[in-house]
Every structure is written in structure tokens, then in C-alpha cells.
Amino acid sequence: MEKEELQNIINLLETGNSKDDAYFGIFEYGGGSDESYIKANKQGLELFAADLLKASRDSEEIVLDNERDIYSLDYGEEWIDDESGTFIQYVELIIEKRKKEKKKPYKETWKDDAAKIGCIGGVLIIAISIVVGLITMISWLL
To answer: What is the largest CA-CA distance in the chain?
Structure first.
């Protein structure tokens, strides 16, 4: 999208939403960042989206300025929950496109085979020891 189009959308989002009514927060419901969720109302989502669109609008200028490759998000706004567990402070902008790396299929090595044989051998030794122990106990009782 062109900068003018982005700016029009940003203006619509910011003027169409009251910051007094907006609510936005990112929380963790479990033990780590992989268990996160966003708690927000419509106005909060749209204001946060406007912040991200601003980063998109300014991305080319920011990336070309080698000293500053980040776009700071304003987490001091009143519509952002202070109790939010995760605060996204800035967006780091890059030029590179995402590289899709193909995962190489795993090739078993001799070490994998040795580990299998070792585990099977260990289980066999334990089973034989149990049988010998049971036979010995039975012979004591008879």
C-alpha cells in the first residue's frame, strides 16, 4: 500500500475510536510466552492496529536510516492495560524477506542403532535377572 492509503486508514482508525473507551492488553495464561492472548475491545484493537500501520507506513524511511531500525510503540497510553503481562515496546524493521528453509530428513547414524541395541540389551538383562531371581526364590522355598 502507498503511504497516503495507509495514512487514510490510520486517520480513520484514530478518529473513529475514543481512547477513553479503548482497552488493550497482552497476557500470559500459562508458564511462558507461547501461552499468550490478547484481551481487548474493538476500539483497543483498532488503535493498536493503527500503531502497527504507522510502523508499516514509516518502514522504508526507518530501514534506510542505518542508525535507527526500530519503530517505538507507545505503551504509555491510557488505553493499554498496566497489568498486561507482555509489553511490545518496539517493532524492529528489516528489509529481508523470510527465508523458508527446507528441513532435511533425519538420517539415522550408527550411534542411533547402537542406542537401540543398548536399550534392548538392557531390557533383556533386566528381564533375565528377574526370571533368575524368581527361580532362585522359588527354589529356596521348596
So the answer is: 97
pLDDT at 26: 86
Amino acid in position 115: A
By C-alpha distance, which of 128, 3, 115 is closest to 56?
Answer: 3
Percent of the residues in the chain that have a pLDDT greater than 70, as a whole number: 99
Q: Tell me: do 77 and 117 sit in the same domain.
A: no
Nearest to 7 by CA among 42, 54, 39: 54
For the chain, how many structural domains are there in total?
Answer: 2
Residue recorded with cell 522355598: 141
Cβ-contact 26, 84 below 8 angstroms: yes
Instruction: Indicate yes or no: pTM above 0.85.
Output: no
Residues 20 and 75 grouped into a single domain: yes
Separation CA 17–CA 51 (nearest Å): 13
Per the structure, the complete domain to which residue 117 belongs is given by 107-142
Report if residue 98 sits inside a domain: no
How far is Cα 60 from Cα 57, in angstroms, rounded to an integer?
8
**Residue 102 domain flag:** no
